[in-house]
Inverse folding.
């Protein structure tokens, strides 16, 4: 996940956090998830062909990424990351559409812990994806 999440995982958010600190934390979580989603979408579109669009497609994207398509591609993500990623996806939706809501420091801290737990899982999965794409390209 994004290096900007480091502050969040060190417990820098507490109930005294300013609205600006909470907003920055929310946007860092938003951007980190969006970056991963963009990677998955590009790979799935390139390898699998056209993927669905619309609101349900964002849920489907994570589901597709955890499936191996025999003879075509390996799973891009481990299933151990899927539930945590769905949680971050839901929060990203909230950030985009929760116009006049107060951000909760405890909720943001919990999401930061989720992101921190995802880091080693995603590092593993993205390393595996990189190796697979390198093999496809003929890199050794």
């Amino acid at each position: 996940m994004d290096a900007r999440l480091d502050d969040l995982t060190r417990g820098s958010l507490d109930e005294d956090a300013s609205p600006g600190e909470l907003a920055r934390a929310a946007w860092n979580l938003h951007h980190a998830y969006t970056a991963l989603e963009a990677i998955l979408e590009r790979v799935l579109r390139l390898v699998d062909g056209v993927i669905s669009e619309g609101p349900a497609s964002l849920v489907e994207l994570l589901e597709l990424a955890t499936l191996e398509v025999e003879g075509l591609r390996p799973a891009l993500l481990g299933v151990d990351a899927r539930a945590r990623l769905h949680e971050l996806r839901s929060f990203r939706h909230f950030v985009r559409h929760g116009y006049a809501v107060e951000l909760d420091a405890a909720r943001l801290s919990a999401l930061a812990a989720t992101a921190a737990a995802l880091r080693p899982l995603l590092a593993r999965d993205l390393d595996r994806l990189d190796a697979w794409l390198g093999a496809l390209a003929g890199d050794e």
Remarks:
- The mean pLDDT is 84.
